[in-house]
Design goal:
Helix content is 35%, strand content 11%. It is α/β, with parallel strands linked by helices.
């Protein structure tokens, strides 16, 4: 595989060619969706944090918010399709004024709701009711916690954030989250602190479980490891430190074809805060909507037109297919 990627990189094509050509040489093109299990919705780029690895460059000064008409279109898409999972992300999705309305509307039509939370948002003004709200609606929480030590987390997310995350996890545990076999799930997400790939998900999960239980008395269900994407704020860091090309080469060399069947874009459609449809949140940030033969906006959502669509590929796709992959 190394020879293949080296051959692909002997010239200076458009960046998409590195990933696309690797798949072409393997006879794996095109990559197509295999139905749609999840509708992922980026409600806002506003966030109470400004994490150094954030691919959408979310932060307190961002003003982008999904309009009410698009929120209604999301509900309409769920009502008129077999999709049963709504995945809410941001920024901090909880900061959107229609967040609770969207969660309860989705639950009312029988959808499971996942929320990508930074946990520290629980301590923002007006958010104290989040834990009981989550419990009452059976919301599955996917929480960012880059590491199990305060120095590592605060260096990426800001001073005091680790302590807030631990406090939030204790509150959620008190509300029934994190029990083995229970229906109330809280999963954690690990991102490496710098320009390197995450370790084995299984071994790191065991470390997280031991450290968080013994030192802080908190529980969680699963740990997911994700490679940092060469997009947004992390890309800016790589460029400033002259490490962008080095990191891309690291991702290319770690390309694992076995991950292609499980990558999230094959079973998901992502909706931007402005209603744009894309194959994943990373493509949204890169300005890559779904293929031209598909509807481009949530108001025109067509399940049948999108469920077998051809996936739009780009250089950052190596991030989801490196090592164990990011699913």
């Amino acid at each position: 595989m190394e020879d293949l990627l080296s051959e692909c990189g002997n010239h200076e094509p458009d960046p998409v060619d590195y990933f696309t050509e690797a798949l072409r040489k393997m006879g794996r093109l095109p990559i197509c969706a295999e139905g749609i299990e999840i509708l992922q919705v980026n409600l806002t780029y506003r966030c109470n944090l400004a994490c150094k690895h954030c691919h959408v460059q979310a932060g307190p000064l961002r003003t982008e918010m999904m309009a009410g008409t698009e929120v209604e279109s999301v509900i309409h898409a769920l009502e008129n399709s077999p999709i049963k999972i709504l995945d809410l992300t941001g920024g901090a999705p909880e900061l959107h004024p229609d967040f609770r309305f969207l969660v309860t509307a989705a639950r009312a039509i029988g959808c499971q709701v996942m929320v990508r939370s930074n946990l520290a948002v629980f301590f923002e003004s007006g958010q104290a009711d989040l834990p009981p709200f989550y419990r009452e609606n059976g919301v599955e929480i996917v929480a960012s916690l880059p590491y199990f030590r305060v120095a590592n987390v605060d260096a990426v997310r800001g001073n005091g954030v680790f302590e807030q995350c631990i406090k939030a996890m204790r509150i959620l545990n008190d509300h029934g989250y994190g029990q083995e076999g229970d229906s109330l799930k809280i999963h954690l997400v690990h991102n490496p602190r710098g320009a390197f790939l995450p370790p084995s998900q299984e071994s790191l999960e065991a470390q997280y479980r031991k450290e968080l239980s013994e030192n802080f008395g908190v529980r969680f269900n699963r740990l997911y490891t994700l490679a940092n994407m060469p997009l947004g704020r992390f890309k800016d860091f790589l460029v400033r430190s002259d490490g962008y090309e080095t990191y891309l080469e690291k991702l290319r060399k770690a390309f694992n074809p076995a991950t292609l069947d499980g990558i999230m874009c094959r079973r998901l459609v992502s909706v931007g805060w402005d209603g744009t449809l894309a194959d994943c949140d990373f493509n949204l940030v890169a300005g890559l909507p779904v293929k031209d033969d598909c509807p481009k906006h949530i108001r025109d959502f067509d399940y049948e037109a999108l469920r077998r669509r051809q996936i739009v590929l780009s250089e950052h796709c190596f991030g989801c297919t490196a090592g164990q992959g990011s699913t």
